[in-house]
Amino acid sequence: MTSAETKFSRRQALAMLGGVGATAFSFSTPAIAQRSAGRVVVVGGGFGGATAARYLKRGNPNLNVTLLDPARRFYTCPFTNLHFGGLRTFEQQGHGFDDLRRIGVQIVHERANDVDAKGKTVTLSGGRKLPYDRLVLSPGIDFRWGALEGYDQAAAELAPHAWQAGPQTVLLKKQLEAMEDGGLFILVAPDNPFRCPPGPYERASMVAHYLKTRKPKSKLLILDAKDNFSKQGLFQDGWKKFYADIIEWVPRSKDGKVAKVDAKAREVETEFGKKHKAAVLNVVPPQKAGFIAERAGVTNAGGWVPVKPQTFESAQVADVYVVGDATIAAPMPKSGFCANAQGKVAAAAIVASLAGREAPRASWANTCYSLIAPNYGISVAGVYEVADGKIVEIKGGGVSPREASDEFRKLEAEYGVGWYNAITQDTWGSKPA
Amino acid sequence: MSKFNTQNRVPCGLSPSIATMLGFALTLIAVQPVAAQSPSDITTLAGSCANCHGTDGRSPGPIVSIAGRPETLLLSQLKAFKSDTPPPGTTIMNRIAKGYTDEQIGALAKHFAAISANEPTKKRRK
User: Fold this and answer.
1) Same domain, A166 and A270
2) Mean local confidence (pLDDT), B52-61
3) Are strands A398-399 and A376-387 parallel, antiparallel or unpaired?
4) Is residue A96 located within the same domain as residue A169?
5) N or C end: fewer C-beta atoms under 10 angstroms in chain B?
6) Is A225 domain-assigned?
């Protein structure tokens, strides 16, 4: 429901009840303010922000909740790898905000340009200032342009990162489709921490599936700034099974760390001076919290956001809550599932704090499925709580068994789709696409 | 704290404040506080389940719905997962269930059993 609709229906109701006086009153006072239990502004309509907005309204329908995102449709990073594999369209990862409107969240398609944490306002790209009682930032990631020599915004137009879903995804897909059979696809994987730890390796798997089925003479080289990665054993088992002649992974200890990028030549140079030339170059660069987090003063020297574990309120700025990839929440990974789970914990804490109650006890989980080939999925799971003021992973959880039947892997591929359907329903109210 | 989105669950014509009270009353009936697990704690605890089983445990896809299933069934399944004797056709819940205490598992079974399996149909405004 938009604010205009809210105003109209309330005017109607008041007119029916009380006549002229009440109608005049509704003209002079914003309708929402009369019964609002507090104003919450949410910046960012991804897994963290959209979930926070939804669960704020569920927690207290009388809250005035405004969600800011310049995009009319949010495209998720999760499952875009399947698009590279040719298994899903790009549009299947798009989610609108109509269902959030339906439950009473006001959606404003503007960018948040600045935060005044003292005056408690957010400045929108259109110049308007929105006041808040509590602020939620779900800013995702930004890139440290230039931290990897030669890789800046202009370079990303030639050698895409495709680590934020949108035009970059479309660009990389186009390059992959235009590549000649026999070409070399190079994926440059970053050091920790970064968004979606298994992401580069699922991407390699799905690109390899595309190459195997469409361009079988081609190769894929992963140049990695690390020696270990998420679900490593399971990925490597899968690669051996499906892509033994296609994927080569070079860890840091074997000179896998890229030190310099020449995007025009589609060439990279490693730490020890070895040059590799690609037909398609996909660089996942070093990252930091999204820029509005810096404006709000919630980032630390490392560029990420420390939070109070119990509530995800900023450790540095009062009444500003931060969720998702921008936060320092280890051992929770930077995943869409965790962003959603953190959004719920922050929403519950805000509802409680505006009502003068203590925040409920926090609890989070994470489940992350990766697809290695059609009908061959793997997963990792974790459950988290706060102990001694820190987020800890509870014993249990872990990755799929190394020894498992093809039937087991097939089920995990199906459950991966089930997870995507469920979490996008829970976050944006989407129906399976 | 209301466990349900009360706005969508009450017939039209009730004022939002009555709706909130009604939602709160339903919550009290539905979720008896378990020791050290307050109603708002269980809402937070159950929040993670929605990411795979759907909002309020009503799944939109191939993963099973858990809303409105008998409490005893939910409880026995969660215990089976936790003790690594999962039902066939499952892959991940044994790993997840180990992350919860028996008390939390009991509270979750009660919570999802108390939610109706189908979203109540909304009356249309004339």
Assistant:
1) yes
2) 96
3) antiparallel
4) no
5) C
6) yes
Residues 345-384 of A with CB under 8 A from B: 345, 348, 351-352, 357, 360-365, 367, 379, 381-384
Q: What residues in B contact A412, CB-CB < 8 Å?
A: 91-92
- What are the residue ranges of helices labelled H in A19-133? 20-28, 31-35, 47-59, 80-84, 98-102
Enumerate residues 111 to 170 of chain A having a beta carbon within 8 A of any beta carbon in chain B.
none
pLDDT score recorded for residue B39: 74
Interface check for B30 against chain A (CB to CB < 8 A): the answer is no
A332-364 pLDDT, tens digit per residue, is 999 999 999 999 999 999 999 999 999 999 999
Residue B15: pLDDT above 90?
Answer: no
Any domain includes A373: no
- Same-domain check for residues A160 and A123: no
**Contact B1/A at CB under 8 A:** yes
Give the number of domains in chain A.
Answer: 2
Look up the CATH number of the domain holding residue A297. Answer: 3.50.50.60
Q: Is B50 on the interface with A (CB under 8 A)?
A: yes
Q: How far apart are CA A321 and CA A69, in angstroms?
A: 17
pLDDT confidence bin for B36, thresholds 50/70/90: low
Which of A95, A340, A363, A375 should be substituted to probe chain B, the one whose Cβ sees the most B Cβ atoms within 10 Å? A363
Q: Are residues A255 and A198 in the same domain?
A: yes
pLDDT of residue B33: 38
Whether residues A267 and A167 fall in one domain: yes
> Are residue A181 and residue A266 in the same domain, yes or no?
yes
Higher pLDDT, B5 or B103: B103
B21 touches chain A (CB under 8 A): no
DSSP for A332-348, please give it: S-S-HHHHHHHHHHHHH
* Structure token pair of residue A289: 């919290």
Query: Is A185 inside any structural domain?
Result: yes
User: Which residues 71-110 on chain B approach chain A with CB closer than 8 angstroms?
Assistant: 89-92, 95-100
Domain residues for the domain of A232 are 153-284
- Residues A109 and A75 both lie in one domain: yes
Whether the CA torsion A107, A109, A115, A119 is positive or negative: it is negative
> In the listed set A341, A358, A375, which residue is the last one of a domain according to the structure?
A358
- Chain B neighbors of A419, CB-CB under 8 A: 51-52, 63
Rounded CA gap, A162 and A173, in Å?
Answer: 9
Dig out the tokens for A259 from the structure: 């030190």
Tokens at residue A324, please?
A: 């998702």
Average pLDDT over chain A, rounded to an integer:
93
pLDDT tens figures, A15-46:
343 333 333 333 434 444 446 899 999 999 99
Q: Mean pLDDT, to the nearest integer, of A40-58?
A: 98
ipTM for the predicted complex comes to 0.88
Q: Are residues A224 and A107 in the same domain?
A: no
Cα–Cα distances in angstroms (integers) from residue A51 to residues A15, A43, A315, A339, in the given order: 35, 12, 21, 8
Q: Are A368 and A337 in contact (CB under 8 A)?
A: yes
Structure confidence at residue B37 as a pLDDT band (50, 70, 90): low
Of A304, A326, A358, which marks where a domain is finished?
A358
Q: Is residue A24 part of a domain?
A: no
Which pLDDT value is given to residue B38? Answer: 75
Could you tell me if A249 lies within 8 Å of chain B, comparing CB atoms?
no
